[in-house]
Write a structure and sequence with these properties.
This protein has about 180 residues and is an alpha/beta fold. Helices cover about 35% and strands about 20% of the residues. It contains five helices and six strands, in the order βαβαβββαβαα. The strands form two sheets. A three-stranded parallel beta sheet has the order 1-2-3, with no helix packed on it. Strands 4-5-6 form a three-stranded antiparallel beta sheet. Helix 2 packs parallel to helix 3. The longest helix has 22 residues. The model has no long low-confidence stretch (mean pLDDT about 95).
Length: about 180
């Protein structure tokens, strides 16, 4: 009777995860809702959360930054409050779904992930993805994208990377206290 919370991740879209959860139908199986993972699959976190809400057991609380790239867009974890996500709305919905939910910060400091939506290979596993999903993320990039806000660690020493990551984690904790009621 151990509960298992499976993270929504960059290897399946929400509909696939919900179908899997329904097929297994176990009260001990649910979701670790990661606020930003599925942006790389062009999913709006608010719409995704509505579909996953009945299954959410815990979270990976994070904010995400985006910026235009020649092959699509760049995506990266950024300190809370510096990205494109409406964190308070997402947290409120998580708590409505599961009043005992645990919020776990996931602040990874690394070079941005390249999401090559302009590359034909990107679409191989998602040939029927609605254009509105690409339009949604592209609107986020146009209106809220900020290349300068994305972390860059290439070329930094291990000590520099660790200091940068610690500063980002501390900034997240401060934001969570000051603006999110944690």
């Amino acid at each position: 009777k151990v509960k298992l919370a499976v993270e929504n991740h960059k290897d399946w879209r929400t509909e696939e995860q919900v179908a899997w959860l329904q097929r297994l139908g176990s009260e001990y199986l649910g979701v670790c809702y990661d606020f930003g993972n599925n942006l790389s699959l062009l999913e709006d976190p608010h719409q995704q959360l509505e579909k996953l809400a009945p299954y959410i057991m815990t979270t990976h609380l994070k904010d995400m930054g985006v910026a235009h790239d020649k092959d699509g867009f760049l995506l990266s974890e950024v300190p809370l409050g510096k990205g494109i996500l409406d964190l308070n709305a997402l947290c409120d919905r998580c708590q409505q779904s599961n009043p005992r939910i645990e919020f776990n910060l996931e602040m990874i400091t690394r070079d941005p992930l390249q999401v090559p939506v302009f590359n034909e290979d990107y679409w191989i596993t998602m040939p029927n993805l609605p254009a509105r999903d690409l339009a949604w993320i592209w609107n986020q990039i146009k209106t809220r994208g900020n290349l300068d806000a994305l972390p860059k660690v290439a070329g930094q020493s291990t000590a520099q990377r660790l200091a940068y990551e610690e500063a980002n984690v501390r900034a997240c904790f401060q934001y969570a206290r000051d603006f999110m009621g944690f």
